[in-house]
Design goal:
The structure holds two protein chains of two kinds.
Chain A: E1 9-18, E2 21-31, E3 35-41, H1 47-55, E4 62-67, H2 76-80, E5 83-86, H3 98-106, H4 114-123, H5 137-149, E6 155-159, H6 167-182, E7 187-192, H7 195-201, E8 204-209, E9 212-218, H8 219-225, E10 226-232, E11 242-248, E12 251-257, H9 260-270, E13 273-278, H10 282-290
Parallel strand pairs in A: 3-7, 3-8, 5-6, 6-7
Antiparallel strand pairs in A: 1-2, 1-4, 8-9, 10-12, 10-13, 11-12
Chain B: H1 4-36, H2 46-68, H3 88-118, H4 122-148, H5 150-171, H6 176-195, H7 201-205, H8 220-224, H9 232-246, H10 258-289, H11 291-295, H12 301-308, H13 316-350, H14 355-389, H15 395-424, H16 435-454, H17 457-483, H18 490-513, H19 518-542, H20 555-582, H21 587-606, H22 609-615, H23 620-647
Helix pairs in contact in B: 1-2, 1-3, 2-3, 2-4, 2-13, 2-14, 3-4, 3-10, 4-5, 4-10, 5-13, 6-9, 13-14, 13-15, 13-16, 14-16, 14-17, 15-16, 15-23, 16-23, 17-18, 17-20, 17-21, 18-19, 19-20, 20-21, 20-22, 21-23
Classes of the chains: A alpha/beta, B mainly alpha.
């Protein structure tokens, strides 16, 4: 099997425990080459821990992690040379200036594109003389993104890239991601709890819940198998695959999981009045699924 | 609050009360230690006590205050104050007044304590004034830090300190040569006298210090003891003093009237006040409105950037070396430079008579620096971990870059020390401290901090806390026990109680702050008990077999043994617990012994100096270089492994 046909990331049975807290619990995940892979989940679900394993910053306590077919702990220099990473913490050294950051980072990546870096810097409106510690939160994210993008990585890892940022900066970051994806064969791992962003750019989504991957499919598949239904009924409707149900006066708003025909047939049989039927947003789906009790976790799969 | 000005003062008081309280505690501790380390048999005069006390105050208090008010590297009052609806003038006066009040209060505190101990004399008001100058310089440093950024501020502080030293030395009425000649003659007489009579361990070790006739009558055992021959150490020391005393040296006449010299001190202090006021005003105005940023182009960052713009690094290693230097090592350099400047200042002020006191004080400085630096770097590394370790570079290459930068640091810091020594006393032996000791200090400063930067910061920070606790509690406590006439067997028990209490408090503090390594401190308590028990066992079992344990004059060395015995056991117990709690990879175990060795070397080199004298080790240089050299060499092979552990936890 050639690398070109292989997944960028292959994780098997990965578990991680911080003393009594289980951060990852037997995670199996494959990130295919090309496209944007969204990693969503609530705060503390285990997204960052998963990313740290991909980068080799954490050693797998059990299970295995392969990136480009290699173990990132054993060969970090090879793996990391092909990865661009934007940290959630924006842990750039505060004493550096933007120009110094660019020069410093360029030394590590033979494929560093200076012209592209300057172009990004101008697009992000970053002053080369500015110290990192004096940057605003949005500028800090842009500086980190510049360092992560300018060597045109095969695999771009963005850990909560737009957390706490305003709409303008988020738009810039998303545009940069789209540009990266436009390059052939590049892969983006986009971790966020801002689901509308993920929905906008991701081709595939994995949902992390309490250290487990509970959903791992394409956005098209999610949209095809999840339905928002608004019904008018006297009692709470009981549809197959129902994930959430909210009452608004005499109307009931439901999020269902299953084939469209199955849901429609059930509504017809029960005699409820169908007010509206559409595709729910990723946020609706996540909230509906997160609303499920932990005991029904297995039903998610 | 009735006025905004008072509200501003109150605000600053709230933000500074902890460091101020710490200063008060340190002052009391310093006075106690200063009182205890004087062997009552050789206490010449209250003046000597005052000198010792002022040295302690000089060295510890400014550091405590400046370090205690550090916020986010820069030193200034909270930026939140700039958002208050008050004028810039009120902000300026609030800031300046508070800092000057603190400076004056510090000076007053030192003066009052000295007055209570020694009465009113020149040795009271002169050091008080000098201390006030130092504190004021510290305030200027704080203001400069805000105006220029921390690094340039430190440079300015060093230059100011050196300038002050040189100015005062140039105008001092009595030449150092004259003082040295007198001291040498007195020391020579003393040693010749001791060669034919009784002596104490302290007198043996402090041959350079003038030893007056004892205040207390000699003990019966000493009266009946036969005259003892000089040992090798004493013979060498006497020969050296003889050589030095025979060197013909000119005795230049006093340059100025002594009264005038004292007025110069006062003038220096008075001169600092407007300087600090000016800078405070500048800081306030600049921070608030940025009005000076655009008008004085050389202060803005553009020129600096134009000068420092870097080209592409040729290799990743070069980039990483540069990063290591800028990220951590330069802080060590600046910290050591400030530290060295203060030590040089103290040395210049104290002159010949009490160089050994500086030697005694040095570990306290060193530990404070080590702890502060270790803690700072622990925070810094944790913050930048993913930035550093996601670089496509082999782990060994990362470690090598740090070693390269560390070597550069070592070379620079050693050179800086030597230059400082030359500046303090051009053309002569450095100050009142022998050259080998100064070289030892330089080596220790360089190698110690260098090694610390190579090792795990959290380990060093915790180890330093432990050692500090041992030093601060056990050693002075033993001396207290000596002074109170307690038997040798009682002092460690007393030390055990207090040391245990300190460590227990430390454990709670660490646990509350949620710092890594709480388990380490917790188990260090167990280790401490083990250490004390072992020390007791050694002492009790050795009483019959080791003659020196029965020697009354060797009590101090015995006390000195206790921390040495405690140290490795307590830290080892902590390491074991830490390893267990964290489920760490085995390679971490290899770095801990190095940390123990390093910390032990620090303790060995300086803490029980009397112990070294007992064993008649030839010089501090050899001792320090032996331990620290071994530690440094031992660090290198393990550094890649430790970096590996840091990278892939």
């Amino acid at each position: 099997m050639t690398e070109a046909n292989d997944a960028v990331v292959r994780i098997t049975g990965l578990s991680r425990r911080y003393r009594r807290t289980v951060a990852l619990d037997g995670v199996d995940l494959e990130i295919p080459r090309g496209g944007v892979f969204g990693l969503v989940g609530e705060n503390g679900a285990g997204k960052t821990t998963l990313i740290k394993h991909i980068l080799g910053l954490l050693r797998a306590q059990s299970g295995s992690v392969e990136v480009f077919g290699l173990n990132p702990v054993k060969t970090p220099e090879t793996v990391l040379g092909r990865i661009g990473y934007l940290s959630e913490d924006r842990d750039l050294p505060g004493w550096m200036r933007i120009r110094e950051l660019m020069d410093y980072t360029a030394a590590f990546y033979p494929k560093w594109d200076s012209a592209y870096a300057d172009k990004l810097r101008e697009a992000f409106e970053l002053d080369p003389a500015a110290r990192i510690r004096n940057l605003s939160r949005g500028q800090l994210a842009k500086a980190g993104l510049l360092a992560a993008l300018a060597h045109r990585p095969e695999f771009l890892v963005l850990d909560e890239p737009s957390s706490g940022l305003d709409v303008i900066v988020r738009r810039d970051i998303l545009a940069a991601i789209i540009r990266t994806v436009a390059d052939e064969g590049r892969t983006v791992l986009f971790s966020s709890h801002l689901l509308d962003e993920v929905e906008r750019v991701a081709d595939r989504v994995a949902m992390v819940y309490h250290g487990k991957i509970v959903v791992n499919t394409t956005m098209d598949d999610i949209r095809a198998t999840h339905h928002r239904v608004v019904l008018r009924a006297s009692t709470a409707p009981d549809l197959p695959g129902i994930l959430s149900c909210q009452q608004r006066g005499s109307e009931w708003s439901l999020v269902c999981h299953g084939e469209l025909e199955t849901v429609q047939a059930a509504i017809h049989r029960a005699g409820w009045e169908l007010v509206e039927m559409c595709s729910p947003s990723l946020e609706d789906i996540f909230v509906a699924r997160a609303g499920k009790s932990a005991s029904s976790l297995e039903d998610w799969k | 609050m009735k006025s905004r000005f008072r509200a501003l003062l109150w605000e600053q008081w709230l933000n500074s009360r902890l460091p101020l309280a710490c200063m008060g505690l340190v002052t009391v501790l310093a006075s106690l230690v200063g009182a205890m380390i004087i062997d009552m048999d050789r206490l010449a005069s209250k003046e000597e006590l005052a000198i010792m006390f002022r040295l302690l105050a000089f060295c510890i208090l400014p550091i405590a205050f400046v370090a205690g008010t550090v916020r986010d590297i820069r030193l200034d009052f909270p930026r939140r104050l700039f958002t208050l609806p008050v004028s810039s003038a009120q902000l300026f006066w609030g800031q300046w007044s508070f800092k000057m009040l603190v400076a004056l209060a510090c000076g007053l505190m030192v003066g009052v304590l000295q007055y209570l101990l020694c009465g009113w004399s020149e040795s009271v008001y002169v050091p008080t004034l000098i201390f006030a100058i130092i504190v004021s310089l510290g305030q200027m440093l704080a203001c400069f830090s805000t105006a220029f950024g921390a690094m340039r501020a430190v440079l300015v502080f060093i230059l100011l300190s050196i300038g002050t030293i040189l100015l005062l030395r140039a105008t001092e009425p009595t030449s150092p040569t004259q003082i040295r000649q007198t001291e040498l003659e007195r020391n020579l007489k003393e040693i010749q006298h001791r060669g034919s009579g009784s002596e104490s361990a302290n007198q043996r070790g402090r041959g350079r210090t003038p030893a007056p006739p004892p205040l207390n009558p000699p003990r019966e055992a000493e009266k009946t003891a036969p005259p003892r021959e000089q040992n090798a150490f004493e013979q060498r020391h006497a020969a050296r003093l003889l050589r030095e005393s025979q060197t013909p040296e000119a005795q230049p006449p006093p340059k100025v009237n002594p009264d005038l010299w004292h007025w110069l001190w006062l003038a220096a202090f008075v001169g600092i006040l407007p300087g600090s006021a000016l800078i405070s005003w500048w800081v306030t105005a600049r921070t608030r409105s940025g009005m000076l940023r655009g008008r004085i182009p050389f202060l803005d960052s553009e020129v600096a950037i134009g000068r420092k713009t870097l080209g592409r690094f040729k290799t990743p290693q070069a980039a990483q070396r540069w990063f290591e230097w800028r990220n951590t090592l330069q802080y060590g350099l600046w910290a050591s430079a400030v530290f060295g400047a203060l030590a040089a200042l103290v040395n210049a002020v104290s002159r010949e008579r009490i160089g050994w006191i500086l030697l005694f004080l040095f570990p306290y400085f060193q530990i404070a620096v080590v702890f502060g630096l270790g803690y700072y770097l622990t925070v810094g590394t944790a913050r930048n971990r993913s930035f550093i370790f996601t670089k496509p570079m082999r782990t060994a290459a990362l470690a090598n870059a740090r070693i390269d930068a560390g070597l550069l640091y070592t070379i620079i810091i050693t050179g800086l020390w030597l230059i400082g020594i030359l500046l303090v006393d051009t053309g002569h032996e450095p100050g009142g401290i022998s050259s080998e000791i100064m070289h030892s200090l330089a080596f220790l400063c360089a190698a110690g901090v260098f090694s610390i930067l190579l090792l795990g910061r959290e380990i060093i920070a915790l180890g330093a806390i432990t050692e500090l606790a041992i030093l601060v509690v056990a050693f002075p406590l033993g001396l207290v026990a000596m002074k109170l006439g307690m038997s040798e067997e009682l002092s460690p028990e007393a030390g055990l109680g207090l040391l245990f209490a300190v460590l227990l408090g430390l454990w709670f503090a660490v646990k509350r702050m949620k710092l890594p390594g709480a388990m380490c401190v917790q188990w260090t308590l167990v280790g401490t008990v083990m250490g004390v028990l072992l020390g007791l066992g050694i002492r009790i079992s050795g009483t019959d077999s080791l003659e020196w344990l029965l020697d009354h004059s060797s009590r101090e060395p015995i006390v000195g043994i206790t921390p040495l015995v405690l140290l490795p056991f307590s830290i080892a117990a902590g390491i074991y617990a830490e390893a267990r709690a964290r489920r760490i990879v085995p390679m971490k175990f290899f770095t801990h012994p190095v940390a123990i060795l390093l910390l032990g070397a620090l303790g060995c080199t300086f803490v029980p100096f009397a112990l070294k004298e007992y064993f008649q080790w030839p010089s501090d240089s050899i001792t320090g270089m032996y331990f620290l050299g071994c530690a440094c060499v031992a660090v290198f092979p393990w550094l890649p492994l430790f970096t590996q552990w840091q990278r892939h936890r």
